[in-house]
Design a protein that fits this description.
The structure holds 2 protein chains of 2 kinds. By secondary structure, chain A is mostly helical. Chain A is 82% helix and 0% strand. Chain A contains 12 helices and no strands. By secondary structure, chain B is an alpha/beta fold. The longest helix of chain B has 16 residues. The chains are: A mainly alpha, B alpha/beta. Chains A and B meet through helix 1 and helix 5 of A and helix 2 and helix 3 of B.
Chain lengths: 287, 311
């Protein structure tokens, strides 16, 4: 366990040493600044229009625009957080192999599984809190400006973190098996596959095509990313919005049904199996 | 690798022993039936042409590569033993390190990997820096080091834990002649401390100067091994300069040595050992030749290497 923590700590040192932390921090501040500026402009235009109409703007009237604003913001945060989890982890193991640094690491008194687990822990301890911080900053920053807070942001963030954890673990598996470049391409395709699956099942629902819907649902078991986001989005929408979405049916970007406990267990097992596979694959490799 | 007891425990402690070690990459054997014994405390040279399986052997002994079959022990332990790994150091041939670290960060991290305490690390880092000649440069990033300095910091990493056994794979490939001499001195110091040194090198003159014993490998097998002085003594050459090479002289020398080369006034002989030299002189003089010079020439390791690999 000592070695797992040592490798995890090393991941942080590396992120700092390569100035990754600063780059991400700076761009994140920029992203939030743009988002909040957008919120401000929107609020401003609402206020001006209601003044022109000589009407008082009530919080109730702004509920749906505010909710959509937060939902869109969180959609981007989910995308950014997931991608960040992938990109920061792509080279986690393969980078050491590609560059040859592995040759001075593995002869040390450290087990190979400790190495992989350390890398996984190090990267998740970086990517997951990052996602949580970004999401909460967005939700509570908007709440401060508009007075609107989504019904259950913590649960939504939890699901988004689960998605990031899934992507990150799959990336560690790729990185333990393939080169950095190949891992990147594979993960990009995987991410796209989840997306396409989600859209297909929405289109299926919209057009009333049960086969297409079933096919789309099947992909949610291969790449649960999109499904996890839909599950998260349920906790970000007030009742009114949920009912509107239900009536409209098949919005490809949000969901209306909370995820079942069974599905969450499936995702948990999926992640554990992926991690175990990463360890196994790495154990067997020659360098 | 499994339950295999060293046959020579008690007689001589072996730092490395392999039996029929074999590694096949995609149907092609890189190491084929390699049996090797390295005693503790000796400086062992592992020689062979490119692609002979030297690096693969080292990688198997270090747990980087899994043997296809065969058995091996390092410091009396199976290959996956952490206990043995704690007492082993390694400088890879293609030394690449985390170059965003400073020299000190790098050594500290590797000390932690060895399982050393902070106190041990703090004490040991200045010592190894001094030894490899990097004192004063430890605060700089490895990225800014020259190739030679990178190899030096790699060497420092390999001996940081005061290993009982250290593998040096082409340790002077990036060094200038002075750096090479320094590495030879370091190897001497390690030997003085009782450390076993396993040296992979193409620089035969260096191996000749530093190693106690060598093994020649070709196509994944050991084709010859032995004490350096014995291997070289076996191949003693003597040059005779006389007034004229006559049939009488040839006949007199024939039972004592093999004639390898001759021109009008000199012959080159190969003798079994130094003990034969007085007899050679007597025979030459006895045959009636006037002997102007008799000079023994040791065959170099390089000649032996070429001969072994080509045969």
């Amino acid at each position: 366990m000592r070695n797992v923590l040592l490798i995890a700590k090393f991941t942080w040192l590396e992120a700092a040493g390569r100035r990754l932390i600063w780059a991400i921090g700076l761009l994140t501040v920029l992203f939030l600044a743009f988002y909040f500026m957008g919120v401000e402009f929107l609020l401003d235009s609402f206020r001006r229009r209601s003044e022109a109409l000589g009407r008082e703007l009530s919080g109730q009237q702004l509920l749906i625009p505010n909710a959509i604003l937060v939902l869109m913001g969180m959609y981007i945060v989910n995308f950014l957080g997931g991608l960040m989890a992938v990109f920061t982890t792509i080279a986690s193991v393969s980078g050491e192999v590609d560059s040859g640094t592995i040759q001075s690491l593995l002869p040390k008194p450290i087990r190979r599984w400790e190495f992989v687990l350390g890398k996984w822990l190090g990267h998740l301890s970086f990517a997951l809190p990052y996602l949580a911080l970004l999401a909460l900053a967005l939700v509570y920053g908007t709440a401060l400006m508009t007075g609107y807070a989504p019904p259950d942001p913590l649960r939504a963030v939890g699901l988004m973190m689960l998605n990031a954890l899934f992507l990150l673990t799959l990336t560690v598996l790729g990185s333990s098996l393939l080169s950095t470049l190949t891992t990147g391409v594979v993960m990009f395709m995987t991410y796209g596959l989840g997306w396409v699956g989600g859209i297909l099942s929405s289109v299926g629902a919209l057009t009333g095509s049960p086969n297409l819907e079933r096919f789309g649902q099947l992909t949610t078991y291969v790449v649960p990313s999109d499904q996890l986001w839909r599950g998260a989005s349920v906790y970000l929408q007030p009742e009114v919005l949920l009912r509107t979405q239900e009536a409209a049916r098949g919005n490809p970007f949000v969901g209306t049904e909370p995820l079942t406990a069974g599905y969450l267990v499936f995702v948990g097992v999926y992640i554990l199996v992926t991690l175990a596979l990463a360890v196994l694959v790495f154990q067997r490799r020659d360098f | 690798m499994r339950d295999w007891q060293s046959p020579r425990v008690g007689a001589m402690r072996l730092a490395i022993e392999t039996r029929n070690l074999r590694k096949v990459f995609r149907g092609r054997p890189a190491v084929d039936d390699l049996s090797l014994e390295v005693a503790q405390g000796e400086v062992f040279g592992f020689l062979g042409p490119n692609g002979a399986g030297k690096s693969t052997t080292v990688k198997m002994l270090l747990g980087l590569t899994h043997p296809t079959s065969g058995q091996a022990r390092v410091l009396g332990q199976p290959l996956d033993s952490l206990e043995a790994k704690r007492c082993v150091g390694f400088l890879p041939e293609l030394f690449r390190f985390h170059d965003w670290m400073t020299g000190r960060q790098f050594l500290r991290f590797h000390g932690q990997l060895y399982g050393m305490s902070e106190e041990q690390i703090g004490r040991r880092i200045p010592e190894v820096l001094e030894l490899v000649g990097l004192t004063g440069r430890e605060g700089e990033r490895i990225k800014g080091y020259s190739k030679g300095m990178q190899q030096r910091v790699g060497l420092a990493q390999a001996i940081l834990n005061r290993p009982e056994l250290v593998f040096l794979d082409e340790p002077t490939s990036a060094l200038d002649p002075i750096g090479r001499r320094e590495v030879r001195e370091i190897i001497g110091i390690l030997k003085g401390q009782g450390t076993t040194v396993f040296l992979n090198s193409h620089l035969l003159s260096e191996v000749e100067m530093t190693c106690d014993r060598v093994a020649f490998v070709n196509k994944g097998r050991v084709i010859r091994s032995g004490r350096m002085d014995e291997l070289l003594r076996e191949r003693l050459e003597v040059e005779l300069r006389v007034d004229a090479v006559t049939p009488g002289l040839r006949a007199a020398l024939a039972p004592l040595a093999r004639l390898t080369q001759e021109d009008g006034q000199s012959v080159l002989l190969e003798v079994e050992s130094e003990d034969r030299i007085p007899a050679v002189a007597e025979a030459a003089v006895g045959s009636g030749a006037k002997l102007y010079a008799l000079s023994p020439r040791r065959k170099s390791l390089e000649e032996l290497f070429v001969q072994l690999v080509e045969s």
